[in-house]
Structures are given as C-alpha cells and as structure tokens.
Write a structure and sequence with these properties.
alpha+beta; S16 Ribosomal Protein, Chain: A; 2 domains; five-stranded mixed beta sheet; 5 strands; elongated
C-alpha cells in the first residue's frame, strides 16, 4: 500500500519533516517514491505540491492524519494557512470577575432601557394634558 506521510529530518529537538509518498512497508526514513514538500512544525513553515498530493490520493495513496490536515489547510501556492489562536487562558477568579462585570453591564443597559421607555411615556402624558387644557382655555375665552 502506498502512503503519504512525514519523514523526520533535523537534529535533536529541532524536527523538520519532508512530506513523502512511500510504500507502507518501507522504514520511516526509507527511499521515497516522490517527495511532495517539507514542513517545519516549530515555525509553521510549509511548502507542499498540493496538486501532486491530490493526484496521489486519487491513485489510492493513503495520507496520514497529519498529512491530511496539512493538505486540507494548505493554500494553492503550497503554504500553510495557519492562524495563531488569540484566546488567552485566564484563571477562574479572573473569569468570575469578567462574568460579574458583563452581568453588571447588562443590568445597567436594562435599567437605562427602562428609563428610556419611561421617559417617552412621561413626556406624552403632559402633552395630552396640554392639549386638553387648550380647548378649555379657548372655551373660557369665548
């Protein structure tokens, strides 16, 4: 069976990988049928011949999980489409504090909205009284 997998290169603690098409019975560092590109997990640098990889998959080559991920997240030019996660981990106390602040902000908005609803109702009532007073003043003037 033909597989598309990573071939480890580099020194200790500095891995670099080559994406290769290889017979599954060969060693990890055995002679590949074709080299499709390279991948550096430390710097997230990658260059991959995506067309050739997809061609091999059509022919029946089985990609490893990591290689499948790389192919799926690869741009057309063969570079990795990687976005760094921006979410920061915070402590439970900090999370509770943020939730309390959000809740207080929501309550403040709700109270402000209630005041805004009451204000037009209060403004409408004097306007109606003024309209009612105007005919009474006109009748008194006649």
């Amino acid at each position: 069976m033909v597989k598309i997998r990573l071939r480890r290169m580099g020194m200790k603690r500095t891995p670099h990988f080559r994406v290769v098409v290889i017979n599954s019975r060969e060693k990890r560092e055995g002679r590949p049928i074709e080299e499709l590109g390279y991948y550096n997990p430390k710097t997230k640098e990658m260059k991959l011949n995506k067309e050739s990889a997809l061609e091999w998959i059509k022919k029946g080559a089985q990609p490893s999980e990591t290689v499948q991920y790389l192919i799926n997240n690869c741009n057309e030019d063969g570079t990795l489409n990687y976005t760094k996660k921006s979410a920061e981990k915070i402590s439970k106390k900090a999370q509770a504090k943020l939730e309390a602040e959000k809740k207080a902000a929501e309550e403040a908005k709700a109270a402000e909205a209630a005041k805004v609803e009451e204000a037009p109702a209060a403004e409408e009532a004097p306007a109606e009284e003024a309209v009612a007073e105007a005919p009474a003043q006109e009748a008194a003037a006649e």
